[in-house]
Prior knowledge:
By secondary structure, the chain is mainly β. Helices cover about 0% and strands about 55% of the residues.
Amino acid sequence: MESISNQRFVGERALFAGRDLAIAHTVFADGESPLKHSSDIGLDHAVFEWKYPLWYSGGIAATNSALTESARAGIWYTRDVAIDHSTIAAPKTFRRSQGIHLEYVSLPNAAETLWACRDVTLHHVMAAGDYFAMNSSEIRVDDFQLIGNYSFDGCRDVEVDNAYLLSKDAFWNCENVVVKNSLIVGEYIGWNSRNLTFIDCTIESLQGLCFIENLVMRGCRLLNTTLAFEYSTVDAEIVGSIDSIINPTSGIIRCESVGTLVLDPGRIDPAQVQIITSEE
Length: 280
């Protein structure tokens, strides 16, 4: 493996189609696509300052490195990417890529990041930006913080544990999602999804958890959550009270009490819905 250290590269395609490179303490300054079509690249204390640094690449391992804000759309059509203890300040990173592992990574400008990707692992990751992880699949998330709306839209086969999500319209159009031990704050959570499960979560949402086929909730709290479960099929065990429920299609909802309950026979069959409260 060739070693490159203490260098500054400029110009387009500086190390185009590089193979078996160990790159350390190096800056890729102005110049697009410095490592396009590269493979088996190790990066340590590397800094990318311009667009499209790692397109059509494979076998990338980066540690203690950074993509600055101007290194936008940095990693597209790439496979087997492992990044740890690094900062990605650029938007639109990761598109149509697979085999992505991020650990101890900060993404402060994560707008439109992780789109249409597959086989993604996030551990101890912090992100801020709208439309995070749209249309991605096979996602495993642990110890994760996100500030950004419309997250995980159109995702499939997702497991989230120990997350803090401040995200309006999170988990729309999803299929096969399990969220555990997490706090979610945002309007209209989970609409138009299928097989959506929340375990030991705390959720605040206006008109959340609606239009869902097979919604399961265990040991969850719904804080300031109103107009919940509309046209959803529900199996829910809620700790505490629910402010209001409107027209679930079918299922069982267990909770301490319900502030306002609407079961409109002109819209649903109330006989298909069972509400069990501890007040009864």
